[in-house]
Design goal:
InterPro entries: Aminotransferase_I/II_large, HTH_trans_reg/aminotransferase, PyrdxlP-dep_Trfase, PyrdxlP-dep_Trfase_major, PyrdxlP-dep_Trfase_small, Tscrpt_reg_HTH_GntR, WH-like_DNA-bd_sf, WH_DNA-bd_sf. It is a single chain. The chain is an alpha/beta fold. The chain is built from 19 helices and 14 strands. The two termini are 23 Å apart. The chain is globular. The longest helix is centred in the C-terminal third of the chain and has 26 residues, at 365-390. The strands form 3 sheets. An 8-stranded mixed sheet has the order 3-10-9-8-7-4-5-6, sandwiched between helices.
Length: 470
């Protein structure tokens, strides 16, 4: 294994190649804590290198804390190796493929790694020039904008802008009904703190965004699910689950559903809201993909008038994941309680980020950027869909907008096995059961079309599928 790794590595000294190979074996658990490394002479003979090269490599690893030198005995893997950058260590294949697996692999991936399973756009697809203009404007701002706490509700001018944008989607909400948050995820976290007690039941779609599962488990909620269809939740099963389980909350995407790309129909929305009223159910409508739509889809918050529905959004997907900014839209009495909770958990708002987001959104170039982005995603959707079909990977539906394709793998193929095999090739995929509470999506996988255009993705998928089906 070490011989092969060194032959494949170029642009490094021999010492660096030995160091990288041992790091990869430690990260991949083929060398476990306490394991004895080959002797200097033995490894040098195996790799056809000089003993001085191996000595230098071992000494460097000892200095990093990755291995230990025991005089008269040899070198051993340290029990607590010093942390390395993932780009240098190799993928962690031993972790269970659960909701955290996709997040950790995607967030910790190196720049050269491919991430078809992640949930965001490549940096080159985002409005870098607009962000730079906003930063330059912000650099000339007065002292309070750069140094002071923000108000708990958030920057008033940004909340006014969000209020106008909500009106374009049929949701009537004054700026006082809007509270800024650090992200869409923080918004849901605050709402769970505000509305749930440990042991409360929460209903989610099956499949749904995998981090809903992780967040709800952190709040010690009981999670139940209902199958999702091309027009929304299976309404008959939805009615049955709501009657039997009496959930406190239902968390969903109604516009561009994650991971399926489906859009809620008006008929289904009407029935969901009637059941929510009948069984005293509160709905959190996660709408972070709103700006990807070509034509606005039905919103539960618009039909409901923010009575039982809480609407959340974010700018992380369209502006920057580094400048985290989300928001909550709810009835006034709930915003008041949420504001107190925000003070208790994060004190003031992130004023600097809010000022930056306001500058970029107020720039006339943002709408042009989104128009270009929507067309670019449409082209990518068609291209990726066609190539996946050529491999026997079938989209569950052809989404009208957004970045995700929810796909069925060929019969008998386990998506988790495919994901682990692809990770060895530095490609991060999103296997279906991470999205499914019922674990009924074994041979499904979510693809982010903006991150799936590199030919290497399809080459690895072809090879892995051939091997899995053998």
């Amino acid at each position: 294994m070490m011989q092969k790794a060194i032959q494949m590595s170029e642009g490094r000294t021999r010492v660096e190649m030995v160091v990288a190979t041992i790091r990869q074996r430690i990260a991949g658990r083929s060398l476990t804590p306490g394991a004895r490394l080959p002797s200097v002479r033995g490894l040098a003979a195996t790799l056809k290198l000089s003993t001085s090269t191996v000595v230098d490599a071992y000494e460097r690893l000892v200095a990093e804390g990755a291995i230990l030198a025991r005089p008269g005995s040899g070198f051993y893997v340290a029990n607590q190796a010093a942390p390395f950058a993932l780009a240098e260590t190799g993928p962690k294949l031993d972790r269970a493929v659960d909701p955290f697996w996709i997040s950790r692999q995607s967030l910790e991936a190196g720049e050269a790694d491919l991430k078809p399973g992640c949930g965001w756009l490549p940096p080159s697809w985002l409005p870098g020039d607009g962000m730079r203009r906003g930063l330059r404007t912000l650099a000339r701002a007065d002292g309070p904008a750069l140094a002071d706490y923000g108000s708990p509700l958030g920057l008033p001018q940004l909340r006014q802008l969000i209020s106008r944008r909500m009106g374009e989607r049929g949701i009537e909400a004054s700026p006082d009904q809007i509270m800024l948050a650090d992200s869409g995820t923080q918004a849901i976290d605050l709402l769970c703190r505000f509305l749930l007690e440990p042991g409360d039941t929460v209903l989610v779609d099956d499949p749904c965004y995998f981090n809903f599962h992780a967040l709800l488990r952190a709040h010690r909620a009981k999670i139940v699910s209902v199958p999702y269809t091309a027009s929304g939740p299976d309404i008959e099963l939805f009615a049955q689950v709501v009657a039997d389980e009496r959930p406190r909350l239902y968390i969903t995407n109604s516009a561009i559903h994650n991971p399926t790309g489906a859009i809620l129909s008006p008929v289904t929305a009407h029935r969901v809201l009637k059941l929510a009223d009948q069984f005293d159910l509160t709905i959190i409508e996660d709408d972070i993909f709103a700006d990807f739509e070509h034509t606005p889809a039905p919103r539960l918050a618009a039909f409901d008038g923010l009575d039982r529905v809480i609407h959340i959004g974010s700018f992380s997907k369209t502006l920057s994941a580094s400048a985290r900014c989300g928001f909550v839209v709810a009835k006034p009495e709930w915003i008041d309680g949420l504001t107190d909770l925000k003070i208790a958990t994060s004190f003031g708002g992130g004023r600097l980020t809010a000022e930056l987001v306001l500058n970029v959104l107020s720039d006339g170039s943002y709408r042009k950027h989104m128009e270009t982005l929507r067309h670019r995603l449409s082209r990518a959707m068609s291209e990726v869909s066609a190539k996946l079909k050529g491999l026997g990977i079938t989209p569950w539906l052809e989404p009208h907008a957004g970045m995700f394709l929810w796909c069925r793998l060929p019969d008998g193929i386990d998506a988790a096995d495919v994901a682990r095999a692809a990770l060895e090739k530095r490609i991060v995929l999103a296997p279906g059961n991470a999205f499914s509470l019922s674990q009924s999506a074994t041979n499904f996988m979510r693809f982010n079309v903006s991150q799936t255009l590199d030919p290497r993705v399809f080459e690895v998928l072809r090879d892995v599928l051939a091997w899995q089906g053998a």
